[in-house]
């Protein structure tokens, strides 16, 4: 098989069948926060900054969940390639247990110390007050998200990508309608302002979770496990699970803390700078949701092939995914610039902030190619191939060794405008890209984690995937 053979129908069929639903679900997931930001954008820059900072706690928590379930999904995909459903369900049980455990401290911080958290990133009393109102309500959704994330991401490992998409699409529709109604008090609803956005988001998360579980258990799909199937882990299984998943969780947590540190430096530039960054994060979330789909599809495909002992094909498809990501990166950068005027017109911001946002869009567009390659390499190739330790070193080292020092120099030493600070910080993406490509070409990223793990029992597996 040739890496550059882009006429391979099986490759594109797998990418579309797995990647498109995941991309749409990621887009919808980011859309929940996007709706809040756009609707709140009509209330002014202080509200935009408040929601942006409050969502930093959600951001760190969601990356915890992503680390847990992305790591677990390595095993789900490889076990599924091996047709070992019993072990897939055990992986689901572990991800649920760890996710719910992590949710507890995050929920307590949001409920009991919201002002303290917001004050870490802003000294504006209005921003602190508004952010605390939003965070205290939003934090209730964290345990719900832990359940949704486990079932949603492990569904990808067994090819059930449409079910999480249906649940997320319904949640986004609910959130869009009720955020507007509750923020501005329309159709007889109380005018709640920023609190209304948080209430609508909480309701959306609950609806998403209920629909997802109902679809899985009513239709008796692969993840419709009983509580008894979440038990019975062998020492060998737990040891290998911990050794492979721990780097992924550590990766996401340390990376999240590192990039959250950028908000600290942006906060020193003022509320307008924080609002600019938050608006750009919405842009980033929209476009890069699509490439997270590409990365997750690559990871699922590579993991399934490794589990089925098709190592040579896994190597070719991994490299081909990276080649495709370059083309997608070019298209995304151009689209980002093209839709800039329309998108920025949705926000009620000052002329000065609008001009800064325009310049920031060009910065984001300039870095799309290395960013997309990094998503495919870290989420797809390395994690799908079980190379989690290398992924951790690269993904964590970049923000701590390059991004944060650049942020410090840009803000504290050179006193640059926020869009130039962004440009300096994003040099970390270039460094990650270089190391990632070297690793890809070395072929050292491929590790079969399940080939010698014994099966507890033979389970008939339906081949009828959604």
Question: What's the structural blueprint in terms of helices and strands?
Answer:
Blueprint (H helix, E strand, L loop, with lengths): L8 H33 L3 H37 L3 H28 L1 H6 L5 H14 L3 H16 L4 H23 L9 H25 L16 H33 L3 H37 L3 H28 L1 H5 L6 H16 L1 H17 L3 H26 L4 H8 L1 H16 L24
Helix pairs in contact: 1-2, 1-7, 1-8, 1-10, 2-3, 2-5, 2-6, 2-9, 2-10, 3-6, 5-8, 6-8, 7-8, 9-15, 10-11, 10-13, 10-14, 11-13, 11-14, 13-16, 14-15, 14-17, 15-16, 15-17
Helix content: over 70%
* Strands, count: 0
- Distance from N terminus to C terminus (CA atoms, Å) equals 28 Å
Coarse morphology: globular
Order of helices and strands: HHHHHHHHHHHHHHHHH
**If helices are DSSP runs of H or I spanning 4 or more residues, what is the number of helices?**
17
Structural class: mainly alpha
Instruction: Tell me, rounded to a whole number, the average pLDDT.
Output: 83
Provide the low-confidence segments as ranges.
457-466
Give the radius of gyration: 22 Å
Largest sheet: none
In percent, how much strand structure appears in the residues?
A: under 5%
Q: What is the multimeric organization of the chains shown?
A: single chain
């Amino acid at each position: 098989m040739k890496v550059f053979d882009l006429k391979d129908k099986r490759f594109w069929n797998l990418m579309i069948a797995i990647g498109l639903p995941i991309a749409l679900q990621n887009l919808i997931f980011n859309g929940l926060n996007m709706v809040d930001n756009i609707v709140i954008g009509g209330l002014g820059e202080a509200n935009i900054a408040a929601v942006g900072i409050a969502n930093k706690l959600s951001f760190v928590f969601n990356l915890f969940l992503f680390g847990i379930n992305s790591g677990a999904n390595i095993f789900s995909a490889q076990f599924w390639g091996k047709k070992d459903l019993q072990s897939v369900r055990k992986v689901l049980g572990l991800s649920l247990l760890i996710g719910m455990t992590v949710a507890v401290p995050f929920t307590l911080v949001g409920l009991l110390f919201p002002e303290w958290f917001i004050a870490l990133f802003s000294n504006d009393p209005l921003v602190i007050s508004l952010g605390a109102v939003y965070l205290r309500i939003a934090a209730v959704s964290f345990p719900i998200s832990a359940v949704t994330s486990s079932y949603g991401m492990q569904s990808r490992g067994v090819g059930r990508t449409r079910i999480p998409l249906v649940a997320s699409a319904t949640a986004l529709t609910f959130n869009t309608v009720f955020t507007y109604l509750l923020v501005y008090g329309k159709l007889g609803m109380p005018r709640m302002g920023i609190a209304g956005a948080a209430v609508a988001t909480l309701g959306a998360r609950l609806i998403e979770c209920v629909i997802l579980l109902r679809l899985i258990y009513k239709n008796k799909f692969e993840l419709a496990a009983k509580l008894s199937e979440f038990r019975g882990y062998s020492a060998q299984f737990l040891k290998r699970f911990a050794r492979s998943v721990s780097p992924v969780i550590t990766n996401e947590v340390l990376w999240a803390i590192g990039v959250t540190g950028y908000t600290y430096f942006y906060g020193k530039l003022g509320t307008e700078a924080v609002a600019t960054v938050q608006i750009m994060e919405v842009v980033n979330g929209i476009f890069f949701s699509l490439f997270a789909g590409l990365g997750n599809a690559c990871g699922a495909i590579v993991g399934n092939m490794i589990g089925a002992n098709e190592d040579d094909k896994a190597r070719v498809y991994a490299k081909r995914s990276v080649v495709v990501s370059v083309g997608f990166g070019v298209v995304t950068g151009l689209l980002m610039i093209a839709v800039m005027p329309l998108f920025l017109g949705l926000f009620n911001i000052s002329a000065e902030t609008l001009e800064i946002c325009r310049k920031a869009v060009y910065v984001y567009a300039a870095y799309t190619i290395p960013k997309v390659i990094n998503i495919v390499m870290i989420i797809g190739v390395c994690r799908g191939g079980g190379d989690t330790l290398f992924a951790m070193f690269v993904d964590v080292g970049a923000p701590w060794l390059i991004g944060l020092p650049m942020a410090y120099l840009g803000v504290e030493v050179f006193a640059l405008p926020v869009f130039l600070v962004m440009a300096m910080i994003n040099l970390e993406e270039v460094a990650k890209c270089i190391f990632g490509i070297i690793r890809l070409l070395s072929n050292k990223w491929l590790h079969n984690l399940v080939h010698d793990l014994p099966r507890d029992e033979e389970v008939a597996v339906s081949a009828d995937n959604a």
